[in-house]
Amino acid sequence: MRYYPIQLDVQNRPCLVVGGGAVGTRKVNTLLECGARVTVVSQEVSPQLARLAADGRIELLQRPYRGSDLESMVLVIGATDDEALNRQISRDAKANRIPCNIADRPEVCSFILPSIVERGDLIITISTSGKSPALAKSLRRRLEKQFGEEYGEMLMLMGAIRRKLLSREHAPEAHKPLFEALIEADLVEMIRDRRTTDIDQLLSKVLGEGYRYQELMSAEPNRNSYHR
Phi-psi region for residue 210, left (φ > 0), alpha (ψ -120 to 50) or beta? Predict the structure, then answer.
């Protein structure tokens, strides 16, 4: 393996995107979904980026890129159609020891971006090590069909169960067989089919009294993403 797989926490951290076209817009959207504080440097920007700037969701600098733009950044993405500029961004980032991705140029990146399937807290990434984005996209589409929204909801339920177990001073080492029993009992299919009675019966069987699906889910801060 050439690339070391990693999930980077950019929550509330400053990230720079150079380029305001379609590619740059996609990169900005993904960073915002991850909670990053995004600065965009570009003389021309897409209508969506202009709206994000007007709403105060990103900082927009409509001027040419400067090396000083990297100050305090934890990550930079180059998404311009200027090859020389993209390579300059890469060199500047390397000199400042800042992780850098240049769109469609893996040879000048210190990290590459995988194709993503997102189901709540379930993140499935697909990488071809930069060799075939088209294959990564095809595999992502297959996985999107295989892993529905019920997987994100199941993770939310698992997190609620874990917190409740820990609040009762339940030994963490005892959790593994309980969660394995829930997974092996096809809990995800029950969630997909909205079989709440069956879910409650399974929770009671595996965990004992006091574990009910609706109550556990209603206590979750992100429940509206899945609760139907």
Answer: left
User: Are 20 and 46 in contact, with CB atoms under 8 Å apart?
Assistant: yes
185 found inside a domain:
yes
Cβ(211)–Cβ(204) below 8 Å = yes
Spatial distance between the Cα atoms of 146 and 51, rounded to a whole number of angstroms: 35
Q: State the CATH number of the domain containing residue 29.
A: 3.40.50.720
Amino acid symbol at 57: R
Q: How many domains does the chain have?
A: 3
Whether residue 4 lies inside any domain: the answer is no
Q: Are residues 58 and 81 in the same domain?
A: yes
User: Percent of the chain, pLDDT > 70?
Assistant: 95
Closest CA to 28 of 97, 90, 101, 131: 101
Assess contact for 24 and 42: CB atoms under 8 A: yes
* pLDDT over 50 (residue 124): yes
Report the distance separating Cα 185 and Cα 195, nearest Å.
13
Radius of gyration of the chain (CA): 22
| Terminal Cα-to-Cα distance of the chain (whole angstroms) | 41
Give 33-80 pLDDT, tens digit per residue. 999 999 999 999 999 999 999 999 999 999 999 999 999 999 999 999
- Tell me how far apart the alpha carbons of residues 41 and 196 are, in angstroms, rounded to a whole number: 49
Task: Specify the pLDDT at position 221.
Answer: 64
Range of the domain at 137: 115-147
Spatial distance between the Cα atoms of 118 and 203, rounded to a whole number of angstroms? 26
